[in-house]
Amino acid sequence: MILWGLWTRRNERFHGQLHGRERQADVVAKHLLSEYQGAVKKDLATISNEIKETRSVVWKKPQLEQVKFNSDSSWQKETSRASLGFVARNHNGDVLLSGVRVECYVVSPLEAEAEAIMWAMTHARNRNFQNVVFESDSLSLVNALRNRSTLRQIACLFSQILDTSLAFSACNWSFVKREGNQLYP
CB count, 10 Å around CB of 114? Predict the structure, then answer.
């Protein structure tokens, strides 16, 4: 940085652009060092925020006596097919149940996500789980279920999900970012 300051000042002096104290290389070096330190602080702050963001997407265990079902889907527009999956875990994080299947004639990613939740709910009801959390990376679906505000695109399926939720003594909806909605936490 000092060499850069000397070179810059040499060019400014050569072109007659220097006045007073500005001619001294130490002023330039201190200014460049200050800019460098500011940039490093910004980079460190950015890295720190990225680390916090990464930590916030980690899968979290359900409460004692609760079973958490993480569901997910992928949808292919060209074939109207969706792959559905779910994993059920207890408060220790142990896998109790899981499943994967392909569904034909699915018209949207939203419908695919709803189908995955409905399929997980069917398994939860069949296993007689009573205190359940259904976690998905579909924010719009989770918000609609929490608020019980019907999504027109999937009205029938949405109604079926809400009706099925009444079979449990406690049924909660949870959103998790895609990175936290993986098979292995």
Answer: 28
